[in-house]
Amino acid sequence: MSGANLKKRHEIVVTDGHTLNPGDLSWRKLQSLGNLALFEHTPAGEMAARAAAATILIVNKAPVDASLLAQLPLLECICVTATGFNNVDIAAAKARGIPVCNAVGYGTDSVAQHVFALLLAWRNQIHAYQSSVAAGDWSRSRDFCYYLKPFRELAGQTMGIYGFGRIGQKVAAVAQAFGMNVLACHKHPERDAMPGVKFVDLEALFAQSDVISLHAPLGPENEGIVNKNLLSRMKSDALLINTGRGGLIHEGDLREALLQKSIGGALLDVLSKEPPLEEHPLSGLENCLITPHIAWASREARERLMEITVENVQAFLAGTPQNVVNA
């Protein structure tokens, strides 16, 4: 198989390449591995036609279900340009002998950085002060500085982390660098023990933390786990940060907590449906800051993701698929 794959000129189809490469990266390495058909976006109704000749299909969020797979008899491998692969029916792919390969670890630094970008922007009220200065308030001030609202230091406060994999551990390290105490809730506390980090259950995490950051993968067991019960346990000035998966939060319950101001605020990079409807229940709330799922997307992270994707294709061509999620 290895020799045949190396000699064969594969048809590589990228269905939704824009999120990985909006124009600042190169597809050159991938082009060298086969005949590349590149689409920045592909509507669901056009997936079968565009992928018809594919032996290797590269997708980000484009759905690949059993019905589509049945229309792609030439397909031999699927590469997902993401860690999550819930857009692919991996069981149906396995039944057809098609490995599904994902990418892991490319966005750790980028996501951790965005967690603290959100936190620091909110805590130090960067946007409010910038807008105030731009409006001339500083020029009219009688003092060399002025206050919109007092802000507090992170040092001495408690960061609570739900999910303690690569990203959770990086967030913990940065939090400790700021002088924060760190609590974590995790399935494998013994395996992933870290100096200075105390493991607690989820209710204690929400009750004791000043800042809570979500980093657990989403599954049926924890969908909507951040609900009225957990939100009611939070301190009245505590912040909830989510750069993981929007489905971890029951958004209706969070809206009520924010409207009642029973928590300090929510800083979100992900929502349960993306892109959201314009009338999303969390949009427009003064104590909710939302960014458009960009925590993972620093240029460096996307460069690493591109490299992992190329390596996944190379490994498949060599007859030794890697990062296979449906082995």
Annotate the secondary structure layout.
Blueprint: H1 2-7, E1 10-14, H2 28-31, E2 34-38, H3 47-50, E3 56-59, H4 66-70, E4 77-80, H5 90-95, E5 100-101, H6 108-123, H7 126-134, H8 137-140, E6 158-162, H9 166-177, E7 181-185, E8 197-199, H10 202-208, E9 211-214, H11 228-231, E10 239-242, H12 251-260, E11 265-268, E12 288-290, H13 299-317
Helix pairs in contact: 6-9
Describe this structure in words.
The protein has 327 residues and is α/β, with parallel strands linked by helices. It has helices spanning 2-7, 28-31, 47-50, 66-70, 90-95, 108-123, 126-134, 137-140, 166-177, 202-208, 228-231, 251-260, 299-317, and strands spanning 10-14, 34-38, 56-59, 77-80, 100-101, 158-162, 181-185, 197-199, 211-214, 239-242, 265-268, 288-290. A 7-stranded parallel beta sheet has the order 8-7-6-9-10-11-12, sandwiched between helices. It has a 5-stranded parallel beta sheet with strand order 2-1-3-4-5.
